[in-house]
Amino acid sequence: MEQMDGLDVVACERCEELCASRSRIVNGVGPADADLLFVGEAPGANEDEQGEPFVGRSGDVLDDGLREVGLDRGDVRITNCVRCRPPDNRDPRKGELANCREYLEAEIDRVDPELVITLGKVPAEHLLGRDVAVTGEAGDVVDVTVEGEPRRVMVCVHPAATLYDPGQKETFASTLAKAADFTDGESGQRRLGDY
Ligand code: URA
């Protein structure tokens, strides 16, 4: 795909409004062969400024949560459904999600993670293709097909949800603890049969 260089989108003009509002394209970060691939919604102001996903307050929550389960930010891959900041932090529109989907699918295909973890409602519904009650389904592993390949997706609440609603902290922490089990290739494979 000519817009991508490896896992990075290097040029894209598919969404007129996002092209006008972005400072830059915010690509995923982390190892190209990570066991865990976290997928958020879209870059916010901090991400747009720094060119990296989850570097604002949500990123701090994610980093802290990862540390609590013995992981470092650098151990996992982190990306978004949409790679350009929507104006005024609005949700990405259906057409924008669709325009960017090819890049997300290519990233999932190339990283080939043990587990994809969706952070919040938008990525959960985008990858599962249905309505998702995120708090109720957090920690569940769902089998989906992406680009013809079977993928395991774990639903997780958005890190920012723990800031608005401290009751979500436990849900977030226990979901990350379950996800961490998939960082060991062997236990990840063993679990394949469990779900
Ligand atoms: N929220 C997201 O969904 N993605 C980011 O990159 C930052 C905040």
From TrEMBL:
GO terms for biological process: DNA repair. It comes from the Archaea. Its EC number is 3.2.2.27. The keyword DNA-binding does not apply. The keyword Iron applies. Coiled coil: none annotated. Pfam families: UDG. It catalyses: Hydrolyzes single-stranded DNA or mismatched double-stranded DNA and polynucleotides, releasing free uracil. Residues 27-183 form the Uracil-DNA glycosylase-like domain. InterPro entries: UDG_Type-4/5 (IPR051536), Ura-DNA_glyco_family4 (IPR005273), Uracil-DNA_glycosylase-like (IPR005122), Uracil-DNA_glycosylase-like_sf (IPR036895). Keywords: 4Fe-4S, DNA damage, DNA repair, Hydrolase, Iron, Iron-sulfur, Metal-binding. SMART domains: UDG, UreE_C. One of its GO terms (molecular function) is metal ion binding. Belongs to the uracil-DNA glycosylase (UDG) superfamily. Type 4 (UDGa) family. PANTHER family: TYPE-4 URACIL-DNA GLYCOSYLASE, TYPE-5 URACIL-DNA GLYCOSYLASE. This is Type-4 uracil-DNA glycosylase.
